[in-house]
Amino acid sequence: QVQLAESGGGLVQAGGSLRLSCAASGRTFSNYVMGWFRQAAGKEREFVAAISRSADIPYYADSLKGRFTISRDNAKNTVYLQMNSLKPEDTAVYYCGAVRYHRSTYSYAPMYDYWGQGTQVTVSS
Question: Smallest Cα–Cα separation from 82: which of 16, 13, 14, 30?
Answer without folding.
Answer: 16
